[in-house]
Design goal:
The protein contains three helices and six strands. It has helices at 37-52, 59-76, 130-137; strands at residues 12-13, 26-32, 92-98, 102-109, 140-145, 153-160. α1 (37-52) packs antiparallel against α2 and α2 packs antiparallel against α3 (130-137). The longest helix is centred in the middle third of the chain and has 18 residues, at 59-76. The chain is globular, with a radius of gyration of 16 Å.
Length: 166
């Protein structure tokens, strides 16, 4: 199996984005139900959150990335027998965190499998493109397994922000 095409998109498998969690200025999260309507809910939550943070100018890019990360989690990270009607405590969680000049979107899911950008010739063209979009629209992205008693992983994407007044 050749690695020439797939190495371009290797995510950084590192602990967290290179940001100090203690310096975060805003943070919000929501649990998402294990249904595809959750993508719409994630977009609504992202819009409300960014509006509240006065960041609606970044909404389109951030929302596109959030949609892809949530879709990937629902499509690839949930076991096939996951009940699709649970309302609360969904197995997928979206976190939005803001620092002065950075925004991070992180999606937690119960799977330990690394996110993979699939080659389009061995998978349907629709699937696998999501991570190319994440890579294109965010400044960096990566993933890490959850520590301790939490199962699963977090996939994150980082956006650089313009300081206010520039």
């Amino acid at each position: 199996m050749g690695t020439n095409g797939s190495t371009m998109l290797q995510p950084l498998r590192q602990g967290l984005p290179p940001l100090d969690p203690a310096a975060v200025s805003n943070a919000a999260s929501c649990a998402l139900p294990p249904r595809y309507e959750a993508v719409r809910e994630a977009r609504r939550f992202t819009r409300r959150t960014l509006d509240g943070w006065d960041m609606d100018d970044r909404f389109d890019d951030v929302c596109l990335v959030v949609s892809e990360l949530v879709t990937n989690a629902l499509r690839h990270a949930l076991p096939a027998d996951t009940p699709r009607h649970e309302e609360r405590n969904g197995p997928v969680r979206l976190h939005l965190m803001r620092w002065t000049e950075r925004l991070v979107c992180a999606v937690r899911d119960p799977s330990h499998d690394s996110p993979v950008a699939r080659e389009t010739d061995d998978f349907s063209a629709e699937s696998g493109r999501g991570l190319f979009l994440v890579d294109s629209f965010s400044d960096s992205w990566g993933w890490h397994p959850l520590a301790g008693t939490l199962n699963g992983k977090v996939v994150w994407a980082l956006f650089r922000l313009q300081p206010h007044g520039e």
